[in-house]
Structures are given as structure tokens and as C-alpha cells.
């Protein structure tokens, strides 16, 4: 097979008929934890984390993929959401608010942080914006790390533990559920809760994308001067992108804190921001399906390495030559280089639609 | 004749360079007004100051009796001025339809909440916007390309799409910066018909153009800029006979 186009054609399995595609994806999403459970509980945990990352990637994609604002400090909003939950639902301050207060609050604080970041950076673009956002991400992390004195707010590098789990309508998700004799593990319960959030996020982001706001973002991304020339208030729209994007990070962070039961500054390093950005780039910037695939792949990769690379090296060389963490970075970098060469637009480089319609051509 | 736009002693400097010096002109409602002059005369600068891309250094623009804001392009559009660019500036990754719908931005009002909840008003507005955008695409003659991504359109169609996007902002004054640049004879003829139609529908047109034949055939009145100053204004025929204009175009010492 020869092709001149820069992007390789999609493998046949991706090009399935839409009518089959959708039910297949739904079935896969619903059955995934059951399959994973048969392979061991740790795999369900991986899936849970994958969904949290999907949520992060969806939010970051809104800023980077839709509005074209390169944000290297996105994990800061994740941190804001996580610490909000940790402050308001843990023995740390002795406050135990329910999730339907804490989660929206975390989202709101993250949105405020997003707007706070947006204001001074409105005039910046590209590399300059990336540097400032990177600094912002670090500032938040360093604050979390050092706000244990003079008054202990964040408990510093030790972090906050014993955080309340997610409890929905009396159902504590951190405990296995006994349903008509079936044992549903806590991890599976969390999976479905996170899945619900991801589905909601997808629906909301799709609605934004196909709207006057989504088109305004795309306009700013493609040509800011022309966007102004047709009357788009670019300042407002950028702040909106930062604020809304951060909201998803905040929700994801809150869920993370509840799921993990523990938060500490080291979960919010620059590397995490870069990993989320890599998910978007790998999957296909702007395209929701691509972003989701990218997030799942990159969350699963280190776990796969841990499970297979170490035993394989032991069998081959009798010792572990490459630590899985090192191998992960190596493979990630290699994957990025190969991707930029063969599929520069990402794994699923479908064109993002900003209007209803087009089944006909396009 | 009713005055639509008036520029009063408009000045623009770039450091020591006087790009515009006391440029005053009056554009009447319903006419096609041409702005010509040699390269570097300040035509595009005039456009950029008018549309708010640059801050004004002196003087003012008055549109329908109200002073235009300086250096606030998105507010200028609300006053009813839309522009195109000398080098085409479309939203490359959007389809023709989406480009025009983006142009409707200021004439639509759905907010975040309405969009997230898909309120009836928001859905209805979206549907109307799409309908209207398709009409505009048909109007400029590229309706069949509605779902084509802008960067894949032919050059002439990209020019038309830029005009369509500008029309979507529902302007009273349409400012075209060298719309015929790079067009062949057929495309230029088509453009001329389009501008005629637009004028016929009551939109005033301000035109920067190098193609003298186009200017002479299309414009009701013309102003000539040279070194940032207005050196002549009148009907195309009057301007053509003006000695200053001939000197500006053919060289020689300027008369003063």
C-alpha cells in the first residue's frame, strides 16, 4: 500500500460504521472494569486513573486544542480541586462536607484560579504563554509545599491524609457493595462514578464546541487578528477558555483526592502537566475522541511496563536493566518522535466540527 | 446624500514616520468609495486605524454621528464596520460555513449557561445562524462549498469567503482591502458584480484597490493618498485628470 499523504490512513477497525462504533464504545466502557477485574484488582485501579486523566485531558484540550492557548501549568487546577476536597472533607480541619458541596466548590475555585492565570497572560501567545503558565503551575505546587507555616494550612510536603471518600446518597464508594449476593468492589464503583463524570464532560464540551463560543475559540486559535476584526472580544473568550478548562481540572482533582484518600504536592509536578499535554498531542489535538484515546493509552503504558517489562527483563537478563519508570520516559519520548514523523496530527486526527451537520462531504 | 462615515484630520505615526497626516474624508451612505494611491501611501494604515487594529494618534472617525472607539476592533464592528484583509486571513481549519457562522458572533447572544443546557433559545439561535450563514454563502456565490475547510478553497473563493464572513457581522460599511489582488480577469469581473450587488442591497463599500480599471468602473467617488496625505478627492474621472495624482503615480516633483 502506498500513500502520499502525511497522515497514514486509519486502520480499518477505526473506520467502522458509526452505527456500530457508538454501541461498541459504550459496551467497552461499561464492560471494561469487569474484564479488568478478572485480570486483577490493580487493573481496575489503572482504569480509574485513566478516567481521571481523561477528564483532565478533556479540560486541557478545551484550552489548548480549541482556543489554541498553550498551557503548561494545567495540573495546578487539578491541585486546586484536590486540595479543596482535602480541606473541606477530611480530619485535617475537621470539616466533612458532602461531595455535592465540595466538588462544585473545587470546580469554582479552579475556575477562579484559571481566570487569575488568564488575566496577566491575555496578551501572550505561544511560547511566552507556555512559560508563564509553567511558572504558575510551579507557584501553586510550591505554595502547597510551604503553606504549613506560620499557620499550617496545607500540611506541607507530608500532604493531607484520611480524606473522606466519595459518598453518593449514603453509598460509600470506598467500601465494596454487596448487591443481591454479588460483591461489587469499591474500585468498580469508583469506575462507574468517574465514567458518569467523563460522559457528562464529553456532552458539555461537545455542546460548547458546536456553539458561538466554540467557533469564537477556534477563530482566535486560527487567526487572532481576524477574530477581533469580526467583533469577537478575544479577552473575554480567552478568560472563558481558561476558566472553563480549569473547571474540569478542578472536578478531576476533587475526585482524585476522594479516590486516593491522600493528597500531597508531589502529585502535581510539572511532569504531570506535560503528561496531560502529551496525551492530547498523541491522541489528536482538538478532537475529543483522540484526546480520550491518548489519555487512556498513556495511563495504561506505565502499568503495562510494570507488569511485563520487569518480568521480561528478569527472564532475559536475569536482572532489571531498565527501571520501568525510565523505560516509560524512553518509550514516551520515542512515541512522540515517531508520531511527529508519521502522524503529526495525532492518532485520531479527525477534523473537529464547529457546526451541526455535514454527513455529505467534508 | 447622508454621511455615513467621516474621518476628521486623522493622524498616525510610527516612531518618526508620519503614516497618515490630517486625512479627512467623507463617505456617503450607499456609495462605493475608493481609496487609491501608490504603494506605501498609507491606505492599509488608514484601514487599520479605522477598524481599530491600530490606535489613532490624532483626529477622529465619526460613524452615524458617533465617534468610533480607538484600538478596539471588536467594538468598531458593533458600530457597523466590517473589513477584509489584503492577505487573506480566514479561519483555516474551519469550514466555509463555520467561518461565516463565526462572523455572526456579535449578532448572537447565547451565553455559556444557555449553551451548556442547550436552552430552546440557544438551539433556535444556532439553527437561525446556520440558515443565515448558508444564505450568505449563496449570496457571495460559494454555497456549494459550505462544508469545505477554508484552507482547501481556491484563491478566488477564499476572497469571497472573507467577504461573506464580513457580511455576516451585518455591517453598514464594508471595507475591502485590495479584494482583487492576485485575481485573474474572470475572477475580477465576478468580484465587480458581487460588489455591485452588495451596494445594491444598501451596504456602503470602502475599497482599497490597485486595479485602476476596477476602481474607475466601480467607484462613485475616489480619494487619493500619497505619503500619508490626501492629495485628491472626487469622481474617478475628476481624479484622473488631477495633476497631483498624475505626478504621484508617474513620479516627478510634487507640486508644493
**Number of distinct helices of chain A:** 12
Per CATH, the architecture of chain A is Orthogonal Bundle
* Total number of strands of chain A: 8
User: Count the helices of chain B. How many?
Assistant: 10
Structural class of chain A: mainly alpha
The CATH architecture designation of the largest domain in chain B is 3-Layer(aba) Sandwich
Q: What share of residues of chain B is helical?
A: 25-40%
User: What's the end-to-end separation of chain B, in Å?
Assistant: 33 Å
SSE order of chain B, as H and E? EEEHEEHEHHHHEHEHEEHH
How many individual β-strands of chain B? 10
Query: What is the domain total for the residues of chain A?
Result: 1
CATH class of the largest domain in chain B: Alpha Beta
**Contiguous uncertain segments of 5+ residues of chain B:** none
Commentary on this structure:
By secondary structure, chain A is mainly α. Chain A has a single domain (about 25-340), classed as ABC transporter involved in vitamin B12 uptake, BtuC (Orthogonal Bundle), CATH 1.10.3470. In chain A, about 65% of the residues lie in helices and about 5% in strands. Chain A has twelve helices and eight strands. Chain A has helices spanning about 20-40, 40-65, 75-90, 100-120, 125-145, 185-210, 210-220, 225-230, 235-260, 270-285, 290-315, 325-340, and strands at about 90, 95, 160, 165-170, 170, 175-180, 180-185, 260-265. In chain A, the strands form four sheets. Chain A has a two-stranded antiparallel sheet with strand order 1-2. In chain A, a hairpin with a 2-residue loop joins strand 4 (about 165-170) and strand 5. In chain A, helix 3 packs parallel to helix 5 (about 125-145) and helix 3 (about 75-90) packs across helix 9 (about 235-260). The longest helix of chain A has 30 residues, at about 290-315. Chain A is globular and about 60 Å long. The two termini of chain A are about 25 Å apart. The model of chain A is unreliable at about 1-5 and about 360 (pLDDT under 50). Chain B is α/β, with parallel strands linked by helices and about 260 residues long. Chain B folds into two domains: about 1-80 and about 170-255, P-loop containing nucleotide triphosphate hydrolases (Rossmann fold, 3-Layer(aba) Sandwich), CATH 3.40.50.300; about 90-165, no CATH class. Helix content of chain B is about 40%, strand content about 25%. In chain B, helix 7 (about 185-200) links the parallel strand 7 (about 175) and strand 8 (about 205-210). In chain B, helix 3 crosses helix 5, helix 3 (about 95-105) runs parallel beside helix 6 and helix 5 (about 120-140) packs across helix 6. The longest helix of chain B is centred in the middle third of the chain and has 21 residues, at about 120-140. Chain B is globular. The two termini of chain B are about 35 Å apart.
Amino acid at each position: 500500500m502506498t500513500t502520499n499523504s502525511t497522515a497514514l490512513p486509519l486502520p480499518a477497525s477505526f473506520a467502522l460504521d458509526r452505527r456500530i462504533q457508538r454501541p461498541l464504545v459504550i459496551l467497552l466502557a461499561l464492560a471494561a472494569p469487569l474484564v479488568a477485574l478478572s485480570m486483577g484488582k490493580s487493573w481496575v485501579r489503572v482504569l480509574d486513573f485513566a478516567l481521571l486523566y481523561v477528564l483532565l485531558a478533556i479540560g486541557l484540550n478545551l484550552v489548548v486544542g480549541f482556543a489554541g492557548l498553550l498551557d503548561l501549568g494545567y495540573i495546578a487546577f487539578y491541585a486546586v480541586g484536590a486540595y479543596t476536597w482535602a480541606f473541606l472533607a477530611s480530619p485535617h480541619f475537621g470539616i466533612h462536607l458532602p461531595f455535592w458541596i465540595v466538588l462544585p466548590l473545587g470546580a469554582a475555585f479552579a475556575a477562579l484560579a484559571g481566570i487569575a492565570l488568564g488575566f496577566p497572560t491575555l496578551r501572550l501567545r505561544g511560547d511566552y504563554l507556555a512559560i508563564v503558565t509553567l511558572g504558575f503551575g510551579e507557584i501553586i505546587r510550591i505554595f502547597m509545599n510551604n503553606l504549613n507555616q506560620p499557620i499550617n494550612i496545607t500540611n506541607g510536603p507530608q500532604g493531607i491524609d484520611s480524606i473522606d471518600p466519595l459518598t453518593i446518597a449514603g453509598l460509600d464508594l470506598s467500601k465494596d457493595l454487596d448487591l443481591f449476593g454479588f460483591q461489587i468492589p469499591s474500585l468498580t464503583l469508583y469506575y462507574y462514578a468517574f465514567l458518569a463524570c467523563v460522559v457528562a464532560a464529553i456532552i458539555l464540551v461537545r455542546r460548547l464546541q458546536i456553539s458561538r463560543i466554540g467557533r469564537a475559540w477556534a477563530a482566535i486559535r486560527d487567526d487572532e487578528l481576524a477574530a477581533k476584526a469580526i467583533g469577537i472580544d478575544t479577552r473575554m473568550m480567552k478568560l472563558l477558555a481558561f476558566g472553563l478548562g480549569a473547571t474540569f481540572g478542578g472536578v478531576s482533582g476533587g475526585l482524585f483526592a476522594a479516590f486516593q484518600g491522600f493528597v500531597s504536592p508531589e502529585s502535581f509536578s510539572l511532569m504531570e502537566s506535560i503528561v496531560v499535554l502529551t496525551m492530547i498531542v498523541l491522541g489528536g489535538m482538538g478532537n475529543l475522541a483522540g484526546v480520550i484515546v491518548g489519555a487512556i493509552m498513556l495511563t495504561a503504558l506505565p502499568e503495562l511496563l510494570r507488569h511485563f517489562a520487569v518480568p521480561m527483563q528478569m527472564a532475559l537478563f536475569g536482572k532489571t536493566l531498565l527501571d520501568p519508570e525510565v523505560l516509560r520516559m524512553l518509550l514516551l519520548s520515542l512515541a512522540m518522535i515517531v508520531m511527529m514523523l508519521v502522524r503529526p496530527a495525532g492518532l485520531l486526527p479527525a477534523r473537529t466540527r464547529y457546526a451541526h451537520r455535514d454527513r455529505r462531504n467534508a | 446624500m447622508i454621511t455615513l462615515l467621516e474621518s476628521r484630520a486623522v493622524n498616525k505615526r510610527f516612531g518618526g514616520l508620519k503614516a497618515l497626516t490630517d486625512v479627512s474624508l467623507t463617505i456617503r451612505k450607499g456609495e462605493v468609495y475608493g481609496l487609491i494611491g501608490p504603494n506605501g501611501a498609507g491606505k492599509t494604515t488608514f484601514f487599520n486605524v479605522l477598524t481599530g487594529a491600530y490606535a489613532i494618534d490624532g483626529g477622529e472617525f465619526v460613524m452615524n454621528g458617533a465617534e468610533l472607539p480607538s484600538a478596539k476592533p471588536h467594538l468598531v464592528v458593533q458600530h457597523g464596520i466590517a473589513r477584509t484583509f489584503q492577505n487573506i486571513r480566514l479561519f483555516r481549519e474551519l469550514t466555509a460555513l463555520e467561518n461565516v457562522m463565526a462572523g455572526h458572533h456579535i449578532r448572537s447572544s447565547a451565553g455559556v449557561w444557555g449553551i451548556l443546557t442547550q436552552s430552546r433559545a440557544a438551539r433556535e439561535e444556532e439553527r437561525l445562524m446556520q440558515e443565515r450563514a448558508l444564505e450568505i454563502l449563496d449570496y457571495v456565490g460559494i454555497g456549494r462549498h459550505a462544508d469545505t475547510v477554508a484552507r482547501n478553497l481556491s484563491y478566488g473563493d477564499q476572497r469571497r469567503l472573507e467577504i461573506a464572513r464580513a457580511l455576516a457581522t451585518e455591517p453598514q460599511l464594508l471595507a475591502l482591502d485590495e479584494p482583487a489582488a492576485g485575481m485573474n480577469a474572470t475572477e475580477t469581473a465576478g468580484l465587480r458584480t458581487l460588489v455591485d450587488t452588495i451596494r445594491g442591497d444598501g451596504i456602503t463599500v470602502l475599497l482599497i484597490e490597485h486595479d485602476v480599471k476596477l476602481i474607475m468602473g466601480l467607484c462613485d467617488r475616489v480619494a487619493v493618498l500619497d505619503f500619508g496625505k490626501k492629495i485628491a478627492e472626487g469622481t474617478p474621472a475628476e481624479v484622473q485628470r488631477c495633476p497631483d495624482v498624475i505626478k504621484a503615480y508617474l513620479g516627478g516633483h510634487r507640486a508644493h
